[in-house]
Amino acid sequence: MDRGQVIAVATDDKHRFSKRQMNEIHILAGLGVEGDAHLGVTVKHRSRVRADPSQPNLRQVHLIQAELLDELADQGFKVGPADLGENITTRGVDLLALPRGTVLKLGANVELQVTGLRNPCSQIDNFQPGLLKAVLGRGPNGELIRKTGVMTIVLKGGVVVPGDAIAIEFPVPPLLPLEVV
Length: 181
Known about the structure:
4 helices, M1 Pyruvate Kinase, Domain 3, alpha+beta, single chain, 3-stranded antiparallel sheet, 7-stranded mixed barrel, 13 strands
């Protein structure tokens, strides 16, 4: 079982690009982060609601690895925890390499199941020009790599605070790669 750590937690009750860092967040089973605009059983992302408001919410809690923030800083961008709209910023877990269905155990109680990748949109360039290109890459076979974190659903709720340990429980094979959700 690999281990990582929660670096920051954030929420926002409005659909803004960035979230507000908090001392703790309360995660509700089957719903997401208490008080967050994306809380719910069905989709809350505005473009997805317009398409079909009855879709299941596979984007209840958004996680980004702090290593991305380090990479962006090396390229001259100033991006901190919660700036890209994530609820949880992690360190020490390669979120993008996790297979679909992986369970992340945060702190004493919280269990999040990875559903897929976040697809960065053009709004990211409104935050800082050129950032969209910086959070996209190409793999060895020319495939697009989206670096803006993973989306999860909540299996078990509880409180998450910076400093909480993250344990990883991989799903039963076959391991399926992450896709955009």
